[in-house]
């Protein structure tokens, strides 16, 4: 553990976080929720907001895929996404839906300021982010996809989007390499 530089739960909670909050809107699979917890831990994400019927800890399937990240990553449950967005706005977050939509921002072409507070909403595995939620957001972030299928599992999509948001904020070494 020490050689890999892994943090304890307490060290994680004390660490400076990436100013990103993940919003999970009506996710059917608790395994997907657990995977997002694990990814959020890996990237020091501020918190996860769980909305609607999305499973929340403690839950056997979340625990199986989160591998303890449900203990380290802060989370909060909301009955509706509108309530979650209201709280995010009060805290100064810009809110984006991870969704393919007309006028969406391509993930590889957007840039955020290092201290900009961003919330990203990930929607249901089958129906995506609800249209009413998209209407409340500041826009949509779309992952460019080049193959025949133009959809990703929510856990995969969260990993791709969160990595890009974290990567953009990581400083470069004098040689131009990313460094923690």
Description:
The protein is an alpha/beta fold and 180 residues long. The protein has one domain (9-167): Alpha/beta knot. The chain has helices spanning 9-14, 30-42, 60-66, 69-72, 81-90, 131-136, 154-167; strands at 18-25, 45-51, 74-78, 94-98, 105-106, 118-122, 140-142. The protein has a 7-stranded parallel beta sheet with strand order 3-2-1-6-4-7-5. Helix 2 runs parallel beside helix 3 (60-66). It is globular. The two termini are 17 Å apart. The relative contact order is 0.18. The model has no long low-confidence stretch (mean pLDDT 91).
Brief account:
The chain has 180 residues and is of the alpha/beta class. Helix content is 33%, strand content 19%.
Low-confidence runs? none
Radius of gyration equals 16 Å
Number of E-state strands:
7
Strand content: 15-25%
Number of domains: 1
Q: What name does CATH use for the topology? A: Alpha/beta knot
Helix content: 25-40%
Give a quick account of the main beta sheet: strands, pairing sense, barrel closure.
Answer: 7 strands, parallel
Report the CATH superfamily: SPOUT methyltransferase, trefoil knot domain
Rounded to the nearest angstrom, the distance between the terminal CA atoms is 17 Å
Mean pLDDT: 91
Q: What is the CATH architecture descriptor?
A: 3-Layer(aba) Sandwich
Q: Give the CA-based shape.
A: globular
Structural class estimated from helices and strands: alpha/beta
**Which CATH class applies here?**
Alpha Beta
Strand ordering within the main sheet: 3-2-1-6-4-7-5
